[in-house]
């Protein structure tokens, strides 16, 4: 007797992924939209102009550099969305030129006039009066001229090395003796302020008016002093971006520290990947630059007005509070103090877990105090901690050094391969070693990105473990700017898991199974896919099902495919993704049950938190991992299952307002476009709640 087979699910479509690089450009476009938003305080708009520029610098130094390197191999490699590297580079160039144009015009035509209305002006040399010009000539003579080095280009002088991200003047001069023309380069020094105060008051922060002259304008006005006896024909500003995506050859027989220091020295000389020029750039000079830098015309970005608007941070730093967001004071978590008196973190954790959400909860009076109290407590025997990025004057590092000097066993895993923080982390590692800390540099082939701390304390003859697991770095400065979550706990299962994890990081353990943790590179992808499939099974059997995830980026194709399958099975999926998203939501028959939104605002949404309805027995997870190949395959990452009922409720209370209808956010369409919806400011609401609690 024939049996009727179940209908087959159609295969997933080939065009189900969005391009990673174009999605990142869409994220930076959302940053630019904040700079264009006239409802924001004026200097906050200046800040977002600077952030957009520095974001784009790093994108070219790392992502575009990587694409160009792979393209140079001649291999035909397609991205998951089917584009060749050449096709991606062409689309990226066109999109970037459009964004750069918008960025420059926002500054020139909108923000600059508004700054002038507020007494903040950027002027050019020809705008100066006689007295101001005299003062600037003196400043040039005393502070600038001695550090300038004009470099000629001729048969006896090869084309000079152009350092990455430096501003440069390309100068054409003529010798009146024989009429010959020559090219020269003058580097705009980066150890002199980019914007020079104009006027007798100088840079008086108390003065509500502030006028600045760009340093390159001052140098250009005095070029004849750099080329005496020659006629200066023209000058043009340019800027080069170089490949900064290091590939450290990790050999088990070589000191990783030495290998990294060698690669850092090489990074300065990485190949050029972008040439920024002003719109007035002379074509003949441009051709010289392209030839000498071994670049192509499509590597050029033409920028209206000033180059390097990342330097606008100097304007944001002006003491003009009325042009900025209202300052706020982070709240000490209510369970960590009694009135104005700090409580013992250890005593508090014995009563239950503490969930902290930065910047609304103070980092200094929670995570930092946890490490500081451990360092000073004579009952604490050991502190073990991972450090990925920290601040220049890190109180965490200071506390770890004091703990080691007090005779405690201190183990610190310093990730010296943290991009652009390598030199700082090498310095920290050596300081910790000198103090007697056991310093580990991580595992060969992996970056250690997890944010974990373990304190071992003797209590009435018994050892007890206290832990912190977070989504953000142990950095008190970024903790005031980044939205992050962390759990402080004395749960014995978490303590046992962190003990096992540190043994893996510092020794030869190959443990992959944990009680309360998922750990990459072995456990997070498979663990999450199983939980996503579990939701689909619940939905198929009529039980409650649903998935909510908040993260910085979603790129991993296997997890995206699992989410598609869950959506096909009727599971509602809500994703809050600040940056890159390669998933297409809202596609009929594929992802109509998936919604993707992005919040970009005053604070950088940085936490990673995931919840699964699980048939009515909800699970909550938080940790350090975004859902990208690098996080899941090439990093040590940790996701913690949150078991404390109060902490789970507070996680829900933190995530629910961000996902609620009517929140100011961007929503991703099935065609890859992002649509802005104005509404309630989720971050401002959180700040008001904190203020009410503090009041």
Primary descriptors:
695 residues, alpha/beta, polyphosphate kinase like, Endonuclease, Chain A, 3 domains, ten-stranded mixed β-sheet, eight-stranded mixed β-sheet, 19 helices, 29 strands, 36% helix
How is this structure best described in words?
It contains 19 helices and 29 strands. With 695 residues, the chain is of the alpha/beta class. Catalyzes the reversible transfer of the terminal phosphate of ATP to form a long-chain polyphosphate (polyP). One of its GO terms (molecular function) is kinase activity.
Annotated CATH topology of the largest domain: polyphosphate kinase like
User: pLDDT under 50 segments (min length 5)?
Assistant: 201-206, 250-254
Number of domains: 3
Percent range for helical residues?
Answer: 25-40%
Number of helices: 19
Number of strands: 29
For CATH, the homologous superfamily of the largest domain is named as: Polyphosphate kinase middle domain
Beta-strand proportion: 15-25%
Mean pLDDT: 91
- Write down the oligomeric state: single chain
What is the C-level CATH assignment of the largest domain? Alpha Beta
- Biggest beta sheet attributes: 10 strands, mixed
Coarse morphology: globular
List the helices and strands and how they pair.
Elements (H helix, E strand, L loop, with lengths): L19 H17 L5 H30 L13 H33 L2 E3 L7 H15 L6 E3 L13 E8 L6 E7 L7 E4 L11 E5 H7 L1 H4 L4 E12 L13 H12 L4 E7 L4 H11 L6 E4 L9 H4 L20 E2 L2 E2 L2 H6 L3 E5 L8 H10 L3 E8 L7 H11 L3 E6 L7 H13 L3 E3 L6 E2 L2 E9 L2 E9 L11 E8 L2 H15 L10 E4 L3 H17 L6 E5 L5 H12 L4 E5 L16 E5 L5 E2 L2 E5 L6 E5 L5 H5 L1 E7 L3 H15 L5 E4 L5 E4 L4 H13 L1
Parallel strand pairs: 1-6, 8-9, 13-14, 14-15, 16-27, 19-24, 21-22, 22-23
Antiparallel strand pairs: 2-4, 3-4, 3-7, 5-6, 7-8, 10-11, 12-19, 13-17, 17-18, 18-19, 20-27, 21-25, 23-28, 25-26, 26-27, 28-29
Helix pairs in contact: 1-2, 1-3, 2-3, 11-12, 15-16
